[in-house]
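Input for the complex:
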Amino acid sequence: MFNSLSKAIHFLRSNGNTTALVYDDMLGEKGLAQDLKTHIPSVNMGFWKDIDIISPDKIHTANQAMFRLVSEAARFSEHDEKVLDVGCGFATNMKYCLDNHKISKMIGLNISPFQTDWGNKFLFNEGLAHRAEVVLGSATDMPFENKSICRMISIEAAFILIPGSFLKEAIRVLKPGGILSMADLIICKPRNWWQRFFVKSIMKTLYVPSQNVYDYEEYVAMMHRCGLEILHIESMSKEVTSPFKKWFWKRPISVIMGYNFLWSVAGLGFMFAKLDYLRVVACKR
Ligand SMILES: C[S@@+](CC[C@H](N)C(=O)[O-])C[C@H]1O[C@@H](n2cnc3c(N)ncnc32)[C@H](O)[C@@H]1O
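Predicted:
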């Protein structure tokens, strides 16, 4: 308890890179959950479409289904020299992509030093270090040359960033004809005072910028404006956010409240704020 509180105070007073601190310390080594057998952490809400029974241990199956959906939409080919996963978490999606697609070189980008180290060790232990690497850096200032990336994937990272800055960088580093395949959470505009309260709790605890609160239509308009050609866009809230909320409450209360203090507050925000979830496939012309 004291540890959680002192971390909370540390975050609130921090003038440094708060997003990195949040993802280093709040998710820690567990992520949202940890697979009991493999101890692999999970950090996305999962795609639950074909999962009949929602139970605490099914989050990893749902994560893999999300990786499959987003990676298949990226249309990888064996000629892709450089594939990038933006906000790559613990490199678990990178492993999925390398195991299931003929990718010669995959790079992960992550702002969290802890997850970057964890991801690189994980790739090494899985025998994938010769094909993949996680690089420390920000999606809004990517450490890559112009037109150097063939395919870009991003799962549940863009909502934390100012989307315009991320998309501008995505366009800069993608090669002409390059594809961005993305799954992104949308924190919708609050309709009443209690939704407003929970939206604020997400924004404060996870440092989500205030301009990232919008509805589906606004998000689509922003994607159009940024200059990427949209090949596919759909809302997946029925297959993602609704079942994820059920999964959240199926876990024992000790687990729900077992994260550190701020992450528990953010978790409750996700439960009660109005959310949507988008899948987008876009192309740089
Ligand atoms: C919700 S997690 C999703 C992780 C991963 N894509 C997955 O699905 O397992 C968001 C990730 O974005 C990373 N992140 C947050 N801000 C970032 C930034 N500015 N640049 C790069 N990564 C960032 C976090 O460290 C975290 O790994």
